[in-house]
Amino acid sequence: MNIHGLQRNFCSAPTTLLPVQLPTRMESHLCGDELQKRALLARALVRTTIARYVDQTNDRVDPRSLNFKKNGYGKPEVEWQIADDWQPPALQFNISHTSSLIACGVTVDSPIGIDVEEKQRKLKHHILAFARRYFSSHEVEHLTSISDIEIQRQQFIKLWTLKEAYVKALGRGFSASPFKTFTIQLKAAAKRGIYLSRDVESEISEISVDSLGSENLTNNWQFLLLELAGSHYAAICMQKHNTLGGKGNVPIKLTARRTIPLVEDECVLGTSAVVPISGLTF
Description:
- This is holo-[acyl-carrier-protein] synthase.
- The protein is α+β, with helices and mostly antiparallel strands.
- The chain has a single domain (about 1-280), classed as CATH 3.90.470.20.
- The chain is built from five helices and 15 strands.
- The protein has helices spanning about 25-55, 125-135, 135-145, 150-170, 175; strands at about 1-5, 70, 75-80, 90-95, 100-110, 110-120, 180-185, 190-195, 200-205, 205-210, 220-230, 230-240, 250-260, 265, 275-280.
């Protein structure tokens, strides 16, 4: 699986790419040029990233030619143009952004959800009050047990990021998969579960998810939690390949690149820009 990240302070490249999703009139009125710039950078990152991986299958694709659609819950997908002599690659993607970073995750033949949050994100509400509103009782109990306010805040952001990634991977939207219907747990791990490019291997803690509702939403998924550029947490949830049958821990091959669409592209895995925190297959 691959992550492409764009830090907006590095990018001023013009482009004529068509939109993945345009802001509404109300959003444009409220945020103006900043939101328009954010949407432009996001669509440029998605299009150039997907075109890169199509090119690796020996089929060149102009990023501007890509079309997009949404599933029934609003998750964007590529709308491939099928031809008699060409079958589209089994690529899936998801995107997330903050005020200073955009991240795009790409997998082959596996649904994916990604969420990024600033480590220094300011919370308008008291952490425990906010957690009681959205988190499961187990997660609230875990946060309550942390006496250090800063550690408690960081743990809250990690949990929020993981829960967002899980809901986005399911592709069903927040209303269909409310945060209170499942619990995220982090445990110490004795095994190594992530394989990084350049033969770097990282020992990490495990992440598990338990469904609290009548419907089991947790089958056949795996997680990664990363620190990006020392300033953000990134959570990734992806479905294991069908041939694995959902059994046992499976190494995740991860590639991470810092990208300025149409200008610059750099592999940053194995550097301080990408630090694995935890991950699990279950």
